[in-house]
Write the structure tokens for this entry.
Amino acid sequence: MTALPVTFDDIQRAARQLRSVANRTPVMTSRTFDRLTGRQVFFKCESFQRGGAFKFRGAYNRLSQLSSEERLRGVVAYSSGNHAQGVALAASLLNIPATIVMPNDAPYVKLQATREYGAEVVLFDRQTGDREQLARSIAEERSLTIIPPFNDPQIIAGQGTLALELLEDVPDLDAIVVPVGGGGLISGCATAAKGLRPTIAIYGVEAEGADDVRRSLQQGHIVSIPPPSTIADGIRTPAPGSLTFAIIQRLVDDVLLVSDEEIIEALRFAVQRMKLVVEPTGAVAMAAVMCGRLPERVQRIGVVISGGNIDPTLLGQLLESGDVHS
Amino acid sequence: MTALPVTFDDIQRAARQLRSVANRTPVMTSRTFDRLTGRQVFFKCESFQRGGAFKFRGAYNRLSQLSSEERLRGVVAYSSGNHAQGVALAASLLNIPATIVMPNDAPYVKLQATREYGAEVVLFDRQTGDREQLARSIAEERSLTIIPPFNDPQIIAGQGTLALELLEDVPDLDAIVVPVGGGGLISGCATAAKGLRPTIAIYGVEAEGADDVRRSLQQGHIVSIPPPSTIADGIRTPAPGSLTFAIIQRLVDDVLLVSDEEIIEALRFAVQRMKLVVEPTGAVAMAAVMCGRLPERVQRIGVVISGGNIDPTLLGQLLESGDVHS
């Protein structure tokens, strides 16, 4: 077996790097959710992370390891939103100039927050443009370092620190359930969790309209899908990365699918019953547990709520359009 | 000086009664809120309490001290909402039959939750009916024990346990800021906090349209106002109680006022920036700090977010109708 691109040691190093910089986010429970699902569920709430999502972990870990020359020149990132905010915030804390390439249909709240952190935002059209290509040409022009959203060992290691904390707080979990976009979060969490507790199961969850990782696993190689359409804007990635896919193939037990309706129902439950503001992507793993997608034997479950950056107008619409079933 | 109706010992006893039954709610912080206000603020989030508000504390403390005969016969309570849910939930945990008298304009989510906890709900018209009178006649008819919403030593002691926890987590606060309706929460918190830390300041906050306690303090005796109109439905009380007012007169440093617009702005900040679902009453103390109502010298501040039970339709409307200034 070839060695994986990220080790448990990398994650522990990232945890030291992030100590006293990242928030140690709370683990919440809901008696009602447990009663409804017949499981014991522990929600790791990255909605309370700095920048409103887990992305700050990977971004800060990566940026803090730049050379002083690289720091002076600055960084560029491309992102549908939360990675943008994570990089912008980490860059501002480390006094590094940041340029962010964002799709012009990203939620306004994410665009605004990225600019508030002092980053320069460059917009592109997600249907026609290639953001990676655009970021690369900006990077070349201005000698900037590209900070990719997921396919990078230090980014992956940073995201994995979340699972370290979760297992410190609740050591005897049967499984951790994680939303999957490009795979940075789940590959980091799987590396951390299986390093601490080899018997734990790791489940990824994708939206039905964005099942690139599930398809890639089934075919045994990376499969690209057309620009995915799902309400979960944080996981609209057309394909996993080479590094994240290698880790997912080895360490992830299964990738499950949920519909947009199921995601919205979970989001409403989070707001109405748990008093948590979550974004659609943040409700994806929760939706899989609510809808009974996990095997019966999996009883004690860690669920990652990946972020809470939802446009207030969209949240308002989702809340007004119907009541949660419970 | 006459002795006050609730002692620090009562609160410590209540804390023992509630241990492993009530949630120890988290204390949250926001770097952005601190930067905007120039203070260090610690939010005690009773939105995460069982039943979605602090009311469960007092209700459970009171109900757990009924005789076995009283438990068999059952209890009756009158409430604009959260006390209803608190009593209904505590009663269901203790296997006590509960009847709740609620205004017919209470938020639907509170009516529904009260019924879900197994209580019988009796509706009345807040503009014409006297809920206290109605509860009393039901109590007589069916030999039930009345559980008043605030004017009761065991209710007050239960609510005060919140301040014990807050000061255990953050011992060196200059002040605690608390929303004021009938005064049960603030009189319990003041008794607890000044028992632990005599130099701490306690500030109450009322909505402009519901300033019965501020007026009562100014006049030196209990003043009744007409049925108050404010978006903060949890503090629409026309007058403080005899017990709560006696404690407030002795232990509360000042009662401040905020407008409905200021409450809504604080609520939006909580949702958009802190990812917390709070009800309008829950945002009242936060609004006072946001709007600079506290003296400059008060730097380290505990703010009580009293609950998170907001009708999803109302929350949707508040979120869609404008952006938070920040």
In short: Chain B has a mean pLDDT of 94. The two ends of chain B are 47 Å apart (CA to CA). Chain B has two domains: 8-53+153-320, 56-147. The interface with chain A takes residues 26, 28, 31, 47-48, 50, 52, 109, 268, 271-272, 275-278, 308, 312-313, 315-320, 323 of chain B (CB under 8 Å).
